[in-house]
C-alpha cells in the first residue's frame, strides 16, 4: 500500500514512482512532476481489460499529461494465458486511442518476472528522457 520509488541512471538519475491501479484516485496529484508515463497492463487478465482501458483513457485526457510520452506495457508474457500484443491492441482499440491521443504512445510486451522486454523499456526511457543539450 502506498507508492514505491526507484532511482535509475539512464545515464542521468531518473526517479520512477510506482502507483498501483487501486491508487488511481491519487494519480492526478503526481501528474505535474511526470516527464514520461509507463502504464502497465496485466495481459493475462481479460476481465480487467475494460477497467485498464478506462484508466488509460483517463490518464491520456489529463491536461498536465497532454504532451508526456506514454509507454504502455502489456505485462506477464511469461504466463501461458498471456494475450498477444495483437489481441491486446484489439481489445484496447489502441489504434483509435493512438489516433486521438495528444501524446506519443508506444506499446511493448514485457515480463517483470523473467525480464523479457526490459532492455526495450530502458531504451525507450533513455531516448524519451535524454538531456536536451
Task: Please outline the helices and strands.
Layout: E1 4-9, E2 13-18, E3 37-42, H1 49-60, E4 70-75, H2 85-92, H3 94-100, E5 105-110, H4 118-129
Parallel strand pairs: 3-4, 4-5
Antiparallel strand pairs: 1-2
For this structure, what is the CATH class?
Alpha Beta
Strand order, sheet with most strands: 3-4-5
Q: Helix/strand/pairing class, anyone?
A: alpha/beta
Low-pLDDT regions: none
Q: Quickly give the CATH architecture.
A: 3-Layer(aba) Sandwich
Q: Mean of the pLDDT scores?
A: 89
- Name the helix and strand elements from N-terminus to C-terminus, one letter apiece: EEEHEHHEH
DSSP helical segment count: 4
Quote the distance from N terminus to C terminus. 38 Å
- β-strand percent reads 15-25%
Task: Enter the CATH topology name.
Answer: Rossmann fold
Output the radius of gyration. Answer: 15 Å
What would CATH call the homologous superfamily?
P-loop containing nucleotide triphosphate hydrolases
Q: What characterizes the major β-sheet?
A: 3 strands, parallel
Keywords: GTP-binding, Nucleotide-binding
Binding site for GTP: 21, 75-78
GO molecular function: GTP binding; GTPase activity
Organism: Trogon melanurus (Black-tailed trogon)
Describe the protein's architecture and organization.
It contains 4 helices and 5 strands, in the order βββαβααβα. It is α/β, with parallel strands linked by helices. The chain has a single domain, classed as Rossmann fold, CATH 3.40.50.300. The strands form 2 sheets. A 3-stranded parallel beta sheet has the order 3-4-5, with helices on both faces. A hairpin with a 3-residue loop joins strand 1 (4-9) and strand 2. The protein is globular and about 35 Å long. The N and C termini lie far apart (38 Å). The model has no long low-confidence stretch (mean pLDDT 89). This is ARL16 protein. GTP binds at residues 21, 75-78. One of its GO terms (molecular function) is GTP binding. Keywords: GTP-binding, Nucleotide-binding. It comes from Trogon melanurus.
Amino acid at each position: 500500500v502506498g507508492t514505491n520509488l526507484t532511482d535509475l541512471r539512464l545515464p542521468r538519475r531518473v526517479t520512477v514512482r510506482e502507483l498501483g491501479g487501486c491508487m488511481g484516485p491519487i494519480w492526478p496529484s503526481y501528474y505535474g512532476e511526470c516527464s514520461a508515463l509507463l502504464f502497465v497492463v496485466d495481459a493475462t487478465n481479460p476481465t480487467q481489460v475494460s477497467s485498464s482501458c478506462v484508466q488509460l483513457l483517463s490518464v491520456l485526457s489529463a491536461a498536465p499529461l497532454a504532451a508526456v510520452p506514454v509507454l504502455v506495457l502489456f505485462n506477464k508474457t511469461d504466463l501461458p494465458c498471456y494475450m498477444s500484443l495483437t489481441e491486446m491492441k484489439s481489445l484496447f482499440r489502441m489504434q483509435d486511442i493512438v489516433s486521438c491521443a495528444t501524446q506519443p504512445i508506444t506499446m511493448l510486451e514485457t515480463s517483470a518476472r523473467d525480464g523479457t522486454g526490459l532492455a526495450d523499456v530502458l531504451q525507450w526511457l533513455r531516448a524519451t528522457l535524454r538531456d536536451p543539450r
